[in-house]
Amino acid sequence: MKMNINSFESLIFSHLDKNFTLKKARELTGGGITKKNKKMPFYNYDLSAKDCIKGSVLRNVKGSVCEECYADKGNFHYPSVKVSHKKHLESLKNGFLWSMAMAYQILYYKAKYFRFHASGDLQSLGHAIQIINLAKLTPSFKYWIPTRETKILKELKEQNISIPKNCIFRVSAPLINGHLNSKVFRNTSSVITSEKNASGKNICPSLNQGGMCLDCRNCWNTRIKNINYLYH
Question: How high is the pLDDT of residue 35?
Answer without folding.
Answer: 87
